[in-house]
Amino acid sequence: MRSEGCHLKASLLDYLLILVTAVVLQGLGTVAVAVPRSKCYALDNSSRIVDFSSWIGLPFEYEDKDSDLVVRFCKDVERRSQMGYVDFGRFDGFNGFVAGSGHVDFVQGFYNGDLLKCEDSYDKRGRTAQVNIICGNCSNGQCKGGFGCICRVTYESSCRAFVELAIPCEKPGPRVFEGFTVGFNPRSSEIVYNGMTQIGFQRSHHEFSFRTEQINVALYISAIASVSTLVRKPSFKVSPEKGLNVKLSGSGATGSPPTTLSPTVLIVDWRCEKAHSMPFGVNITIPIEGYEPVQFFLTKMCEYRQDQGGDSARGWATFGVISCIFIVASTLFCCGGFIYKTRVEQVHGIDALPGMTILSACLETVSNYNFGVCGLNVQILVKLLRCETDGTVLEWPICPKDDIIRFKRYRLV
Prior knowledge:
Layout: H1 2-28, E1 41-43, E2 49-51, E3 59-63, E4 68-72, E5 76-81, E6 84-91, E7 97-99, E8 106-111, E9 128-135, E10 149-157, E11 160-167, E12 181-183, E13 192-193, E14 196-197, E15 209-210, E16 216-222, E17 235-239, E18 244-249, E19 264-272, E20 276-286, E21 294-302, H2 309-343, H3 356-371, H4 378-387, E22 393-398, E23 406-411
Parallel strand pairs: 9-11, 15-21
Antiparallel strand pairs: 1-2, 3-4, 4-5, 5-6, 6-8, 7-8, 8-9, 10-11, 12-16, 13-14, 16-19, 17-20, 18-19, 20-21, 22-23
Protein name: AT4G36440-like protein
Keywords: Membrane, Transmembrane, Transmembrane helix
Transmembrane segments: 12-35, 316-340
C-alpha cells in the first residue's frame, strides 16, 4: 500500500514537471531544433529528426547454425562462435545513420572491423556491415511486441554482412531544414550545422559568452541554393530585457536568400547599457517557410557600461562629409579664380592662382620683419650671395640700430 502511494506521488510529480515545462516552452515560443546529445540519430525521408539515443548499446542477437551474429545498436556488429569473436565493424557516427529507401526506413553503417583475410577491402576498412532498419515487424511475422529482433542475415562475402533489423522506431521530431549552416566564418558551422543548433548555442551558456569589449559579431549564413528562398527575416529577444541594446544589420538581417557560394552576413551589434553580474542572452530566430525555425542563443558579458558606439560613428561620418564638401569647394574656387584672372585680369603664371597676392604680401611682411630694419632688398641679398665665387664664405646681413649694413661671415663646411 505504501509503495502504491509513493508511486502515485511520483507520477503526480512527473506530471507537474511536464506541465511546467510545457508552459515555460510555450512562453518562450518556438523551441530550437537542437542536435541530439549523441550521434545515434537520423533524418527520415521527410527531413524529420528521429533520435535513437536511448537505444545505444541495446543488443539484438541472431542465431545461426555455426555462429551467432549480435548487433549492438549504434555500437558494433559481431559474429560469435566457438572459435571466438569476429568484429564486423563499429558504428560510424559521422555519416553512418541515414534514411533508407523502399521498405527500409533507416540504414546504419559499421566499418573498420577485423582486417584478417580482408586486407584487400575498400580503403582497408576491414570487415564491414550494413544494418537495414525496418520500423515495425519483419515480413515473416516475427518480432511481435518487445524491442524488435533481427529478421535475417546475409553475407556478401566473408568481409561484408547485411542485417535486416525490425524495431519499434521512435516518434519523429521536428522537421529540419537540411543544408542550413550558421558560423563565424563563410565556410564554418559552429552555431548551426545541417539545420540543427549545435551544443553551446542551444541556450544561454556562460562558457560560450562574448566579452564586454566585443561590440559586434558577424555571423555567416548559408543554405542550399534551390531552397534558399525559404529563409525569412530573422528576429531576436534579449534576456534580461533591459541592459543590453541589440541591433541586427547586414544582408542576413533583411532576409536575403543565402547560398553556399554566396553566404549572407548577419551582424549583431550589441552594447552594454549597464553592468550586470550575469550574462545577457540573445535568442535569434530565423524563420524557414515549411520547416521549423532555426533558433540559437548568443551570450554576452556586461562588466561595465559602454558608450554610444553609434554616436561616435555618426560623428566621424559627419566629419568626413564636411571634409569632402570643403575639398570640393576649395577646388572649384581655385579653378574659378584661375580662369577669372587669366581671362579677365590677364594675369599669367603662378600669380594667376587665387590667394597668391595675399600669400606674397605675407611673405613680404615676414621678410621685412627679418631684414627690413636696415632696408635691405632681397634682390641685393641674392646679388651679395652670388658675389662669393670661391664658395668658402657666405655673407648674411645683420642690421644694427644705426642702419649701417654689416655682414657676419659663416664659413662653409
